[in-house]
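Fold it.
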Amino acid sequence: QVQFVESGGGLVQTGGSLGLSCGASVFTFRLYVMSWYRQAPGKERELVASITSDGRITNYPDSVKGRFAISRDNVRSRVYLQMNSLKPEDTAVYYCNANPAKAWGQGTQVTVSS
């Protein structure tokens, strides 16, 4: 069974930066589009970044464009999310997953204080 393990979250002040990491096991990682999602309390899970299987194309919603950067390492089966200029509205649990989605991991909490 595929397992995603996210890490790197924490508490940061407005304007700060965090780097998230996600490892995948038992999975042909290199063949899949990978994405980061987030879910804030009381809100639906939303997509914040995607990257093609070869890492050449990335996509972001307007809410994070220019501040977040997704990358991947197909040798290590890892996907990363660099988050800069963080805002309180970025506070959420962050998850990675493939497309099509597989079982969700535990996520990693990101809290941005104002």
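The mean pLDDT is 96.
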